[in-house]
Amino acid sequence: MNEFWFVVVIFASSLAGGLLGALGGLGGGIVIVPVLTIFFHVDIHYAIGASLVSVIATSSGAAAAYVREGFSNIRIGMFLEIATTLGALAGAWLTTRAPAAAIAIIFGAVLLYSAYATLRTQHEVFTEEPDKLAVRLKLRGSFPTDSGEQSYVAQHVPLGFGIMGLAGILSGLLGLGAGAVKVIAMDQAMRLPFKVSTTTSNFMIGVTAAAGAGLYLRAGYLAPGLVMPVMLGVLTGSLIGSRLLVRVHVKTLKRVFAVLVIAMGVEMIYKGVTGS
Amino acid sequence: MSWNDKRLETLVGMMLRTGVLLAAAVVLTGAVMYLVQNHAAVRDYTHFRPEPAPFATLKGAATGFTSGDPRSIIMLGLLILIATPVARVGMCVIGFLMERDRLYVAVSSAVLLILLYSLFFHR
Question: Is A78's CB within 8 Å of B43's CB?
Fold first, then answer.
């Protein structure tokens, strides 16, 4: 395959990956690394570099739309970014030292968990005693509902902060946005409303990924000829995906997506274990 | 209009979108030039070899950019993309200063320092 067709095929696959990622609610990164490594035999280091850059693009591209909805919380996001960026530094550091097989196995495990998380049902918001630490750190806010402003205060701040650190490590290590883990930290641990969690998570993804990208850039993970079609493809795909989202049957789609993610997860682990 | 979180978020959202569109336009320009020059070449990504240093630094990309090298133009686009969230955090530092929220000036400055460290010093 010469360079022209290579770029065209990678662009098309990344577009499909970005589209599926947006529709499945997991983002483009989680699909693009397995596709590049399984189908195109791209070294996982290059794949991770291309993915991380695409993650910055999709998160930044979607931000303006999320702001309009009025759910994202800039303070909660900023506070938790201390944890995610430190985690991303550690994760990116690990990637430059870990063998490709180990990265593939961890990636596979994350894929399997993500499939499970996609299918899991969302819980209701409980109101508990306000967390003193959360009040001191101003981790509170309100959002518009049909019955007036609904206010909320974060709970279990240290737990949420810890999970965010883990999300950062995964982002830096595997080139993902780790949006699903960020949502778990806010929605499950800190008991923030689901909408607040997902939109704030989108804001945080770009900053977290940028923290890992510095090291990737200097370690030579960003191959311009590969990153270019991946970044443009994933960005285009996810923009189309977010437009289509209102029109498609999300539940069926999530199931199809989960099956795909499971298959890729098993393949990544197999590849890692057999060293092929 | 006074400074508040809502205004800050709107500004931040607009800035992120502008940054990503600018980055995509630069990468696309580089992509077209790259394909015109390299369409028949065969490249191998199956084994990781760190990218040659000229593309890994801002200075290297800038030098290549002025000489019209397509890979450097793509790299410049990627640098703009990576710089966008960093600029976003910088804008929040200013925004919280205007709101006189000392706690969050400190919080966002800490995030900015971590990001700058990762871009320039992290090994």
Answer: no
Across the interface, of B50, B75, B88, the residue whose CB is closest to A219 is B50
Q: How many domains does chain A have?
A: 1
Is some CB atom of chain A closer than 8 A to the CB atom of B52? yes
pLDDT tens across A90-143, in order?
A: 999 998 888 888 888 998 998 888 888 777 765 555 556 667 888 888 888 888
- Which chain B residues contact residue A93 at CB under 8 A? 122-123
- As given in the structure block, the two tokens for residue B56 are 């890994």
Supply the ipTM of this predicted assembly.
0.87
B 82-111 near A (Cβ less than 8 A): 82-86, 88-89, 92, 101, 103-104, 107-108, 110-111
Range of the domain at A11: 3-274
Which residue type does A74 have? Answer: I
